[in-house]
Amino acid sequence: MNVKTAGRTLDLFDAFARERKPLSLSQLARAIGAPVSSCFGIVRTLEARGYLYEVKARGGFYPTKLLLERARVIASHDPLAERLLPILEKLRDQTGETVLVSKRLDRQAVYVEVMESPHSIRYSPKVGDFRPLHASASGKALLGSLAPALRDELLAGMRLPRVTSKPITPRATLEADLERGRVRGWYLTRGETVADLMAMAVPVPVSGETYSVALAGPMNRMESALKRHAKLLTELRVSMEREP
Fold first, then answer.
1. Where is 223: in which H helix or E strand?
2. Stretch 68-91: mean pLDDT, rounded?
3. Helix 226-242 vs helix 79-95: angle between axes, to the nearest 10 degrees?
4. Selection from 133, 131, 149 nearest residue 141 by Cα
5. CATH architecture of structural domain 78-242
6. Which of the chain's ends, N or C, has fewer CB atoms near its CB within 10 Å?
7. Are 47 and 54 in contact (CB under 8 A)?
8. What is the pLDDT of residues 178-216, one digit of tens each?
9. Right CATH number for 3-69 from 3.40.120.10, 1.10.10.10, 1.10.3430.10, 3.40.30.10?
């Protein structure tokens, strides 16, 4: 199986999640941007492995619960969740805001854990969502934690596109913002990725790798609790750095 086929297989499951109904072979082929013949091979392989079944009355295919069962087993043994889950739950309960854990993937930050705020108005991203390093608190924490030479290399090859009307796009401005974050121990965004969203993050070591832990919520609610949130994040960072 080549990389293209793997990507198309994931696109196929994304299509089912998006459409929420059985899909015909031709519909699936359009959804994953593949010839019907290529899609047929993927569908029949997944069907033979128990991941899809044919809904003849609807003229299409739909996933079985096998993928869900596999995902539950995998998630229950996630080493990151085992290490961080109690800490993240405590932080979410203390702050009432959405808690995010991210990892750097090349020039982006990817959410690997999301615990949503209990408030009805809240930030609700999904695990697997990507955010730009230069315009997200998570990304800034990951950038700021890098060795200067590696950070310079990354920034030299990065485009710094405007995401909202409040970007920090000139490289010199971004570097100054990262330095402020490094000195105070936490990183901040105000409406740089999502309008009216404020987020703050710290880098934390987990099993020899660097992740970021962030809090994110509506601007007015976050602003009013800025000092308290900063204290909680700083304490979390320090405690994680002290762990063996």
1. helix 219-224
2. 84
3. 150
4. 133
5. 2-Layer Sandwich (3.30)
6. C
7. yes
8. 999 999 999 999 988 888 899 999 999 988 889 999 999
9. 1.10.10.10
